[in-house]
Design a protein that fits this description.
This protein is α+β, with helices and mostly antiparallel strands. The protein has eight helices and seven strands. Strand 4 and strand 5 form a beta hairpin.
């Protein structure tokens, strides 16, 4: 694993906020560790304050471990496979990975601003590829979760959840960039819930349309979209609606949002609602909302 700089107090504060907010809301979390952190194995002490580490103490604390260095020593407890999706820098492939899991305490960093902080008890799932294909970067994830992970089935479930991160990010980008939800400037919960009720289905439908164009690009667009939508898109793209495929339809919609089809832009209609494959113009959003979602 490549060395990563030690975490700052702000980084651990962010994780601590996630941890405690999730507990208050009675929900759990699963994130990938991006920063190396000091840890110990005193899980039975839960969230008691960590005593200061000093060489002059009568009973000095055991030396702190570092998360990334520690997980490297964990033996494999199971093997599995992970489907890696294609991107601009890699091809789709199946990775044969090893899994290990264990609870640890994340120790807060030293400093006056972190004095009195409590340690965080989390479950760590280490996922790594022992023998990657030649010339391919090995897959390796260190996942942190509030959910107890004690069996292979539970570890594989956490890994599957993390694999869905790309789809979740696309959905949020669809709301943020394509549907421009931040520009609505709504300040109250009821207003946000109302606008999400309108825009969230739009982002989901666009993701479904993109998936259909990739899975079976030659199927007729009329088998996926309502005939009125296909007719309007075909008219604006100057082609017969009867012969328009789902890929041609998606490309036409993506071009209306600014997709240029350059090699650096990635797959056609790459992002569901943002930047290179979006429906970002207000007229297109009104068109889709009226004919597709509310018909």
């Amino acid at each position: 694993m490549a060395p990563i700089a030690h975490s700052s107090p702000q980084k651990l504060l962010t994780l601590g906020l996630i941890y405690h907010l999730c507990r208050e809301m009675q929900c759990d979390f699963l994130i990938r560790a991006a920063q190396d952190r000091c840890v110990d194995l005193l899980v039975e002490q839960a969230e008691r304050p960590v005593p200061p580490r000093s060489h002059h103490a009568e009973r000095p604390s055991p030396p702190a471990l570092h998360l990334f260095e520690d997980v490297e020593r964990w033996p494999a407890q199971a093997t599995s496979t992970v489907e890696i999706t294609a991107s601009q820098k890699r091809k789709a492939r199946t990775a044969n990975v090893s899994l290990s899991w264990q609870p640890v305490r994340l120790v807060p960093p030293r400093g006056q601003e972190t004095k009195g902080w409590h340690a965080l008890v989390v479950w760590v799932i280490h996922v790594w590829e022992p023998e990657p294909p030649e010339g391919v970067e090995a897959l390796e994830w260190v996942l942190l979760s509030a959910l107890p992970t004690q069996t292979r089935e539970q570890a594989e479930q956490r890994v599957d959840w993390y694999r869905a991160r790309g789809m979740v990010e696309d959905f949020h980008q669809g709301l943020k960039t394509g549907c421009q939800i931040e520009q609505r400037q709504l300040q109250d919960y009821e207003g946000l819930r109302t606008i999400l009720g309108l825009l969230a289905p739009m982002a989901v439908r666009l993701m479904q349309l993109r998936a259909a164009s990739r899975q079976d690009p030659e199927q007729p667009a009329s088998q996926v979209l309502p005939p009125d939508v296909v007719a309007v898109v075909a008219h604006l793209d100057h082609r017969p609606a009867e012969t328009m495929t789902i890929q041609q339809c998606w490309q036409a919609i993506a071009r209306s949002g600014g997709y240029l089809g350059r090699k650096s832009d990635g797959p056609r209609g790459g992002k569901p609602c943002g930047e290179d494959g979006c429906i970002s113009k207000h007229c297109w959003k009104a068109f889709i909302l009226r004919l597709y979602f509310l018909d």
